[in-house]
Amino acid sequence: MKKLSVLFAAIMMVVSVGMVKAQKSATLNVAAVLNAMPEKTKADADLKAFIDTKQTEIKKKGDAGQLKVKQYQEEASKKTAEENKAREAELQKLQEEIAQMQDKAMKDSQAKQDALYEPIEKKLQAAIEKVAKANTIDFVLDYNSSTLLYKNGPDITADVKKELGLK
Questions:
Q1: What residue ranges carry the coiled-coil annotation (predicted)?
Q2: C-alpha to C-alpha distance for 58 and 105, rounded to whole angstroms
Q3: Most C-beta atoms within 10 A of its C-beta, which of 14, 129, 147, 155?
């Protein structure tokens, strides 16, 4: 019985080592591939322009609010308490509008980023899958990932760039 247990354990070790060796893994420098893609460069520029436009709108509204604050402070002593109270309410409303603009700009920027990068991510994923299947690779790990578990596999960055027609 003891010999059978030892034999079984030896067979299991051989089988498990064979299974580990059968799995191929590779690393991919995702950042390098993305930075080489012209679509990503264009998306980055489009997103920056969109964000800059939103920031300009918010700044313009904020500057107008600052002018009103200054004007109201200068004229406060010449106005009645009711007028000053109405002005304070107007300034409060303006401040709320600016906060709402900032929130909306953040949400719009995130939506724009998602819309711009989704097709790029899909294209990259398709290229990774095609290269991995062609090279019978079971696992592809991001070379730059902080959770990288295995880094001795072949680096397929050049093959993915070639698949995407990049240099």
A1: 69-111
A2: 9
A3: 155
